[in-house]
From TrEMBL:
Keyword annotations: Ligase
Domain BPL/LPL catalytic: residue ranges: 2-194
Gene3D superfamilies xref list: Bira Bifunctional Protein, Domain 2 (3.30.930.10)
GO molecular function: biotin--[biotin carboxyl-carrier protein] ligase activity
Phylogenetic placement of the source organism: Bacteria, Bacillati, Cyanobacteriota, Cyanophyceae, Synechococcales
A GO CC term assigned to this protein in UniProt: cytoplasm
One Pfam family in the UniProt entry: BPL_LplA_LipB
Name of the protein this chain belongs to: Biotin--[acetyl-CoA-carboxylase] ligase
InterPro entries: aa-tRNA-synth_II/BPL/LPL, Biotin_CoA_COase_ligase, BPL_LPL_catalytic
UniProt organism field: Merismopedia glauca CCAP 1448/3
Domain of life: Bacteria
Length: 226
């Protein structure tokens, strides 16, 4: 199974505010781990690492993310210079951005707090944001994304092959995901962040509202008083 980076560039176009530098690998332990190493060597924001499969993909709470051939596994480098008090902005905004891009292609993706991608009540994908901090500022961030495309998934999961979609290639899915991250990133400041909260909350699954965690409820309550 190949991957055409030129096709990703075609779908991305030239309107993104961030220059994308795409690095593609057949197999990696982790796209995020590889990207951190590249950033230590001077890789610029907008660098994207894609792997056709991962042997040690990471999910939320240290869980392993199954990364078989046929899924989308990518990580994107950012330099937000965001106060650590606003670290949740990256998580919320990128989840909203990716879901919004997919919904524009008539894929009714929802979100499970804080950043699982849900389709037809099953898990389509997940997002893991990792950061580096200096003097109370998030100076570097890596947004890692895994989305099921044609790969085999457990019963609690779903891939896009099982859902009629206008996204007809892994390259197009990669481009939409990158666009979604960049879209969300553009709202990662205190002034713009609050404007997407209503849209984000509308994307939350009914399960999220029924089984709201103390963390999510406290998060939104605190926002109302800031």
């Amino acid at each position: 199974m190949g991957f055409n980076r030129e096709l990703v560039g075609y779908w991305l176009g030239d309107r993104l505010p961030l220059k994308i530098n795409l690095q593609v690998y057949d197999t990696l332990a982790s796209t995020s781990e590889t990207l951190w190493k590249l950033m230590e060597k001077g890789a610029s924001p907008g660098t994207v690492v894609v792997a056709l499969q991962q042997t040690a993909g990471r999910g939320q709470w240290g869980r392993q993310w199954s990364s078989n051939l046929g899924g989308l596994y990518l990580s994107l480098a950012l330099t937000p210079n965001l106060p650590t008090a606003h670290s949740s902005y990256l998580t919320i905004c990128t989840a909203w951005g990716i879901a919004t891009q997919l919904r524009d292609y008539e894929i009714p993706v929802e979100l499970k707090w804080p950043n699982d991608l849900i389709l037809d009540r099953r898990k389509l994908g997940g997002i893991l944001t990792e950061t580096r901090i200096q003097q109370d500022l998030i100076t570097q961030a890596v947004v890692g994304v895994g989305i099921n495309w044609t790969n085999r998934v457990p019963e609690v999961g779903i891939n896009l092959q099982d859902f009629l979609t206008k996204i007809d290639s892994l390259e197009k899915l990669a481009a939409l995901t990158i666009q979604g991250i960049v879209l969300g990133y553009s709202y990662c400041n205190p002034q713009k962040f609050k404007t997407i909260i209503p849209a984000y909350k509308q994307l939350l699954t009914s399960d999220t509202y029924r089984d709201t965690t103390a963390e999510s409820e406290l998060f939104f309550q605190q926002l109302e008083f800031k």
